[in-house]
Amino acid sequence: MKVLAILGSPKRKGTGYKVVQQIEQKMNQVGKVEFDYLFLSDANLGLCRGCFLCVTKGEDLCPMNEDRISIERRIESADGVILVSPGYVQNVSWLMKNFIDRFAYTHHRPKFLDKKVMIVANGGAGLEKVLDSLRIAIGGPEVVSELAYMKTPWPIAPKVEEKQGKRLEKAAVRFYQAINEKSNEPSFTNYMGFKFFKEIIPAVREYLPADYEFYKDKKDYYYATRIDASKRIGAGILSRIVTFLMRDLAPYEDRKSRE
Ligand SMILES: Cc1cc2nc3c(=O)[nH]c(=O)nc-3n(C[C@H](O)[C@H](O)[C@H](O)COP(=O)(O)O)c2cc1C
């Protein structure tokens, strides 16, 4: 089993790194796990310039030609990914936010949905908000385990440390087990995402050509898998309702001015 840990602290080997090392150790007590550490502070991943070309016309047209492609490969070669960020004013660090933005196209054209994800936030206040940002990163593969790890600038009581250690161990074991299950049936949310994109993309074809090319030949899902009948029916109905509710966002055609 291969796990890639993506660490968003500018401090490199700070608290987040120590937490991941403990996760690595706990997982290896259950079974053999090979860990790869990606320190975003070392990566040559430029700041997103906001051209939006990756989403509209395709990530190959991103004007920055650096580590994004090798990072993609590292994610692809892992079975599980751990996303780690310190809490900075109740949000992810800038390094993690830039990483999330640089992979924005995967929210339209998912690449990593076969991965299992663990999210880890560390710091004090506002860790839930940090976890919320991490939860949707890299196009939304299923988050199977999460950990809010408290780290205060002062020492905390041994019994609190002990409790935290137990929570860490549970989260690490849960992550191991979820990867080991090897199930690739999509979650309702991800299946719903597929149905939604499939439904709306033809109408915005000229504005999102990369999405159109990506979805046009896809039938049941992003990859071959079994889709439960209730999920199929539920998502079909819901995606139509969502499309209807979002009708004001549909491309505007000024028919009168064309006449
Ligand atoms: C710019 C900045 C903002 C921070 N904001 C918060 C915060 O909102 N709440 C908090 O409890 N800790 C905050 N912290 C502290 C870090 O979250 C905490 O020290 C964390 O454990 C550092 O993790 P690291 O060693 O992996 O970088 C902040 C630190 C920095 C540098």
Structure description:
- This protein has 259 residues and is α/β, with parallel strands linked by helices.
- The chain has two domains: 2-181, Flavodoxin domain (Rossmann fold, 3-Layer(aba) Sandwich), CATH 3.40.50.360; 188-258, no CATH class.
- It is 44% helix and 14% strand.
- The chain is built from ten helices and five strands, in the order E-H-E-H-H-E-H-E-H-E-H-H-H-H-H.
- The protein has a five-stranded parallel beta sheet, sandwiched between helices.
- Helix 7 crosses helix 9 (229-245).
- Residues 9, 11, 14-16, 86-90, 122-126, 151 line the site of flavin mononucleotide.
- Flavin mononucleotide binds at residues 9, 11, 14-16, 86-90, 122-126, 151.
Labels describing this entry:
259 residues, 44% helix, binds flavin mononucleotide, Rossmann fold, five-stranded parallel beta sheet, 5 strands, alpha/beta, globular, 2 domains
Describe, in short, the structure shown:
The protein is 44% helix and 14% strand.
Order of helices and strands: EHEHHEHEHEHHHHH
Q: What molecules are bound to this protein?
A: flavin mononucleotide
Q: How many domains, as an integer?
A: 2
**CATH T-level fold name of the largest domain:** Rossmann fold
